[in-house]
């Protein structure tokens, strides 16, 4: 039997995480959502919807994290 190109399917079930934000950070997220809405002509995103792409973008741009992840895989 030939080997398929597709590997194992990762479990991408969302995981709910609860965090407490300082009031100042919450206000900043609200302001960020308003500015993003103005730039994209979209409705204002609630802070919870901003956190996931922000954390993802941060991790993608962290070279130390990326190098460490590659080193662990080899």
Give a description of the structure:
The structure is a single chain. This protein has helices at 23-40, 47-61, 63-73. By secondary structure, the chain is mostly helical. The radius of gyration is 18 Å and the shape is elongated.
Task: Give the helix/strand layout.
Blueprint: H1 23-40, H2 47-61, H3 63-73
Number of β-strand runs: 0
- Given helix and strand content, the structural type is mainly alpha
Distance between the termini: 28 Å
Element order, helices and strands?
Answer: HHH
Helicity, in percent? 55-70%
| Average residue pLDDT | 88
- Contiguous low-pLDDT stretches (5 residues minimum) are none
Entry keywords:
mainly alpha; 74 residues; elongated
Short description:
By secondary structure, this protein is mainly alpha-helical. It contains three helices and no strands.
């Amino acid at each position: 039997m030939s080997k398929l190109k597709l590997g194992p399917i990762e479990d991408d079930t969302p995981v709910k995480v609860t965090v407490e934000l300082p009031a100042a950070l919450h206000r900043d997220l609200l302001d960020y959502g308003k500015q993003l809405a103005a730039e994209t002509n979209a409705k204002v995103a609630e802070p919870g919807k901003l956190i996931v792409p922000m954390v993802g973008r941060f991790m993608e741009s962290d070279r130390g994290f990326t190098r460490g992840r590659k080193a662990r895989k080899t």
